[in-house]
Structure formats: C-alpha cells, structure tokens
Amino acid sequence: MNEIIFRNESPVRSYSGKKLSDYRRYKDSLAQDFKNRCGYTYCLDFWFGGKTNFQIDHFKPKSKFPDLETEYKNLVYSCSYVNRAKSDDVGSYLDPVDEDYNAHFYRDELGNIYPREESEVARYMYIKLKLYLKRHSIIWMLDQLEQKMFLLQKLIEELDNPVAKELYLAVSFKYNDYKKHLRAIQ
Fold this sequence. Notes:
- Helices cover 39% and strands 9% of the residues.
- The protein has five helices and five strands; from the N terminus they run βαββαββααα.
- α4 (134-159) packs antiparallel against α5.
- The longest helix is centred in the C-terminal third of the chain and has 26 residues, at 134-159.
C-alpha cells in the first residue's frame, strides 16, 4: 500500500485582535487560519455545506476548562462529525496547529485515514474521532479530482489537444453539475 501524506498544509492561529467575549465570533478567523478545512480530518468545509455548517471545537473542552472557552489558541475549526465525536472527552489529542499530523497519520490511495502504528495518540484519535468513516476518504477523493481537473485544464490549454479537451469537458460538466447541486441544497 502506498502511503500518502495526510495534509499538504498545516493550519495556523494568526488571530491577534482583542479577545472576544463569544468564541463563535472567531469563526471567520478560524476558517481562514485552517484554510477552510477541518483541523482533524483536513476535509474542506464546502463538502459539508460551507462555513455555516462547520463548527468550532474547544481543544480542551469548555465544560471542563471554562476559562479557555474564548481563548483563540484553544479553538479548532472542525467538521460536525469530529466535533460531536470528540465532545467533552479529555483524552489524548494532537493539537492540529502545534503538531505535524503527517508524522502521526497518513492516507492510502483511496484517501482513507490511518494512524501511524508508533503514535499511540493517533491510534486513540482514530477510534474516538471516527477518522475511519468513509465520508472522509470520499471528500479527499473529490478534492484530489478537482486538483487534477485544474492541472488537466492547464495542460489542455498548453497542448491544444481536441480529444483531451472533449474528455475534460465531459468530466468537468458532470463534476460541476454535482457541485451546483450541492450548492443548491446548502
């Protein structure tokens, strides 16, 4: 099995404004810092209905650490599936900003997420956060398809190959129809 890196870019926490009284008001900054991707699965928020449907995870649960409820450094942009699975658990977790997830997780050629055997905390997260769910690999595959379509489009423009252009248009038409359908139901 070929191992593929878990994520191409690591999120950051760059917010340097005043401390806000409601953690929800950080959502725009979190979306930007996490590049509109779940801090735990690297799934793009678009496939979940966009920023509106993404959630804010408290890395250390607010129920157990109320003093951290509005601390930006304790917040993680997260898909609802992971945020709900994590809930108020205080088990071992890797902070998506402070840790290199590529050292703890990898993907196979189908986008399935796996913990590295030597990382006990990754194995814990894999089970607790349900990182094995098929939805994460499907979203990864859709992202990969879109990236390849952009590359193919550039190549077609450079090479001016009519057969490749026709194939690209057929595939991109179906793909874009699907994305329009998703936007319409969001």
